[in-house]
Amino acid sequence: MLISVSEKDPRPLYLQIIAQVKAQIRDGLLSPGDELPSVRELADSLGVNLHTVHKGYQMLRDQGVIHLRLGQRAKVAELRQAPASRDEVESAVVAPLKELITEAFHLGLSEANFRRLVEELLEAKGQGGGKR
Amino acid sequence: MIPSILVRFGLLLVVVAALSILSLKGVKRLFDLSHAWWTHLPAAMTLWAGVVVGGIMTASGGLVYYVNNVNVVPGPWRFLGNLVGISVLLIGASIFIDELWARQETRKTFNWMSLFDETAVGIVVVASFASLNRAAHGSAGWAQIAGLLVIGCPVVVGIILELARPYVPREDLVQVEDTSALEAELTRRQAAGERITYWEAQNPAWMTALIVVTAAALAFGAATSYRQAPWLSFLLLVLGAGLFLIYGGLRVSVTEGLVEVRLGMLGIRLLTMPTNEIAEVSVHTFAPLKDFGGYGIRGNREMKAYFFRGNRGVLLRSTRGKKYLVGSDRPERLATVLRVVGGQQ
Q1: Cβ contacts (< 8 Å) between B196 and chain A: which residues?
Q2: Which pLDDT score, from 0 to 100, does residue B167 have?
Q3: Domain hosting residue A123, numbered range
Q4: B204 — contact with chain A (CB < 8 Å)?
Q5: Is the ipTM here above 0.90?
Q6: Do A41 and B198 count as a contact with CB atoms less than 8 A apart?
Q7: In which band, very low, low, confident or very high, does the pLDDT at B230 lie, cut at 50, 70 and 90?
Q8: Shortest CB distance from A47 goes to which of B195, B198, B333?
Q9: pLDDT at B106 over 50
Q10: Is residue B327 helix, strand or coil?
Q11: How far off is chain A from B333, nearest CA to CA, in Å?
Q12: In this complex, how many residue pairs, one in chain A and one in chain B, have their CB atoms less than 8 Å apart?
């Protein structure tokens, strides 16, 4: 597992960790059952607070991305088979997507260019091995 | 006129030979084995001959002797059950060992361990019939010669078959990863001042199972020997507890300043090397059995090695000239990270 954190990134550190773990699962670099470093190990390696890593792991657990069990190392959970509920999709995907569309509009990106950009990113994701 | 027992014996041999071939072929297809299935035929035939002879002996009156020597020789079904059970277990272990060897070969080499099943099954068959024979007739001089033949002939055939075994390259088992994109990404992140860490674990399920089963056996031994030998019991307990030091497997972590290899849940440090002491990093393919005699914390004249599975890893050479081999499931990625953080790209 490869993780890097940046103080310059506007996102909190725990969100950076969450995003990278999820991205590596999507790209097939982490598979269900793979072990993750302990909270202490990761915190020591990254030079961040224990609570930061712990919060990231807890959120990943709440989202069903990893398993966290007492006395055991965190493990990547099985991929979700059934699609999420409409409400979950609305809050986790549709709302941020609407914000992105607005951002793209204010950056002067045309609809066609925005669509092409999304397609390119989806294409790149497919090559990474995480295609469903 | 040919005695009917010999006809039955001959027919049984034909049937069991066919069954041996079918079952060994089935195992090969099921597990996509790299080594030839027929290298196990001598052991399988020794077992089947033992079963046939045992069956005929028990069917033709040999059983009488069990009745009189009930404490010496078990009943016919237990006799055949022990013979088949132990032998199949030994042949299975031999298939596993030979397959490990074959998958690690980079060229054809003679695998002396391939004779394990012929020798072990031969000994089991001879030992089984020696106890039968002793019960029936007392010790006989010819039995020892027959015993040597039962072990020796399959071993000789085994040597011939091992020599004839073809080398099968298994490129499909090695997936070399292209890490150029990763290298560019890491370089970008490093230039942006991000703190990078790479982490990888080798914690195979078989090792966890081995630790738990062995520790349970030691604890059982400690509990049962407590009254007779308290010190031995204490020693067994300590050994059992000591096994849990390696529970949790091997972990490799790379940060910008340090490479570490740690063992077990307690995180015992096996290797600590500052990244500025890394002189050379290369992906290395090795043969665990041949190069290091197995898996775990190993070493040979050239290097120290840490691996719990697979046959690939990253070879580190320190600025002081020492070499360390770190096993990895994704050695290209690990090597790339090490090169970038060590400033060698």
Answers
A1: 2-4
A2: 85
A3: 86-127
A4: no
A5: no
A6: no
A7: confident
A8: B195
A9: yes
A10: strand
A11: 9
A12: 55
**Would you call B341 exposed, middle or buried from its count of C-beta atoms within 10 A (0-12, 13-18, 19+)?**
buried
* Domain assignment present for A119: yes
Per-residue pLDDT 10s for chain A (132 aa) are 899 898 888 899 999 999 999 989 988 888 888 889 989 889 988 889 999 999 999 999 998 899 988 777 889 998 887 777 888 888 888 888 999 999 999 999 888 999 999 888 888 766 555 555
Q: Which residues of A touch B255 (CB under 8 A)?
A: 45-46
CATH of the domain at A61: 1.10.10.10
Chain A residues with beta carbon closer than 8 angstroms to that of B186:
2
Is any Cβ of chain A less than 8 angstroms from the Cβ of B212?
no
Pair of tokens at residue B284: 């290395």
- Domain assignment present for residue A4? The answer is no
Domain residue ranges in chain B: 4-169, 174-200+252-345, 204-247
Tens-digit pLDDT profile for residues B238-255: 998 888 888 888 999 999
B251 part of contact set with chain A, CB < 8 Å: yes
Nearest C-alpha in A relative to B193: A6
Do A32 and A69 fall into the same domain? yes
The pLDDT tens digits of the residues spanning B158-169 come to 999 999 888 887
* Minimal Cβ distance to A3: which of B197, B201, B251: B197
Q: How far apart are CA B220 and CA B226, in angstroms?
A: 10
Domain annotation covers residue A5: no
> What sign has the CA pseudo-torsion B2, B8, B13, B19?
positive
When the candidates are 2.30.29.30, 2.60.40.10, 2.40.10.270, 1.20.1050.10, the CATH number that belongs to B174-200+252-345 is 2.30.29.30
CB B119, CB B151: distance < 8 Å: yes
The answer to whether residue B234 neighbours chain A at the CB level (below 8 Å) is no
CA–CA gap between residue B292 and residue A86 (Å, rounded): 55
Q: Which of B192, B253, B330 faces A41 most closely, judged by CB atoms?
A: B253
Measured distance CA(B261)–CA(B318) in Å, rounded:
15
| CA–CA dist A36, A40 (Å, integer) | 11
- pLDDT interval class at B194 (50, 70, 90): confident
Q: Does the model's pTM come out above 0.80?
A: no
Higher pLDDT, B174 or B275: B275
